[in-house]
Amino acid sequence: MDTQSGEKTTDKSETVVLIVESDTSVVDILERALEASTDRYRVTIVGNLSEARSIVSESTPDLIISDYLLPDGWAIEFLTGKEKEHPVPLILIVNASDEHLGLKAIKAGAMDYVVKSEDHLLEMPRLIKRALCLWEAVHEPLEREKALETSLKEKELILKEIHHRIKNNFQVVCSVLSLQSQYIKDEEVLNMFMETQDRVRAMALIHEKLYRSKDVGSMDFAEYVENLVHGLFWSYNVDPNRVKLEIRIEEVSLGIEITVPCGLIINELVSNSLKYAFPPEWKGQGKIDVILMKNEDESLDLIVRDNGVGIPQDLQIGHTDSFGLELVTILAEDQLDGSVMLDRSQGTKFQIRFQKKEH
Q1: Beta carbons within 10 angstroms of residue 324's beta carbon
Q2: What pTM was estimated for this model as a whole?
Q3: How many CB atoms lie within 10 A of CB 263?
């Protein structure tokens, strides 16, 4: 294998490959994989989108291997802009938790994607052969579209099966916790087990919804919230005549990287309201609202509020002994890159503001 940054060779026995990757450890694995192959490759390695654009404008490689997220942009841009005038087969590298981005890239025209792990990256020569054969075999646009659609359906089925197995594993964990809880006499410890079960169920429900979704990369968030919150009402044996529930979720497409922390936040805050907002001596009609709304600046507000007794005035978000509220802060700030606001004026209102991540 020759590694260079010059022009494309005229030797037809060589495959000219452009690797766009800023992670040197990934580059090392790819180089080892291509060197071990019986096929010959002439490789150019760059670390960002700008350099890749420059090379593609001067000479067209046979194939591009690129990380989906580069320091100066998304690799999917290879399938839009000027490069589309001289299309090049693209194999995308994604993190294990971001396989839905690989499926999205295939829909946009990429030939394949590979998970960023050594075992998968070492399979690159085989993936290159497959991508080039598919690319060369389908000269007509319609035929190429049919071939890509078949490949996409295969990967979607695999990803759906993964979600199904994850959901089943979560259910096993719930069953084990349920069995263990039967031997617990301490009420505080028993409550901790129940809360953990609810958190596991919240995550299991996400994978169940993704498994059954038409688009394996996203799901109906409103339906998910309905199922999640009604499950909590059942779990805490809440009288629906005493505590009313209102859910208002604006139509917005959320990927799993947003859905998971949002689901866990809702689980914690609704559970907190059901446990503490309406004690037996509290009189009146209880109400819990769960809202997701889009703002003019395209940010999102996730709001969970109740009209109950309220939380203590001296409680400070991020500085509390409550594991649930600490978890909400971590999820909002670290996972969603958002902020948490607390309003005590009419019961308790938590408002999490964050930006939707575009891929």
Answers
A1: 17
A2: 0.51
A3: 24
Q: What is the CA radius of gyration of the chain?
A: 25
Tell me the CA distances in angstroms from 309 to 131, 166, 207, 279, 322, one per residue in order: 62, 38, 35, 8, 17
Beta carbons of 224 and 258 less than 8 angstroms apart: no
Two tokens, residue 334? 């670290």
* Residues 254 and 289: beta-carbon distance below 8 Å: no
pLDDT by residue (tens digit) across 284-338? 899 999 999 998 888 999 999 999 888 877 776 666 667 778 888 888 988 899 9
Measured distance CA(212)–CA(204) in Å, rounded:
13
Query: Which among 255, 275, 259, 283 has a CA at the least distance from the CA of 348?
Result: 275
Q: Which residues of the chain have pLDDT under 70?
A: 1-12, 78-86, 136-174, 176-177, 183, 193, 203-204, 206-219, 316-321, 357-359
In 3D, which of 357, 162, 341 has the Cα closest to residue 258? 357
pLDDT one-digit tens code per residue, 138-150: 544 555 566 566 6
Nearest to 89 by CA among 32, 7, 147, 33: 147
Q: Which two tokens stand for residue 263?
A: 């689901």
Token pair 């194939």 is found at: 63
Closest residue by Cα to residue 302 from 345, 226, 248: 248
Whole-angstrom Cα distance, residue 87 to residue 175? 51
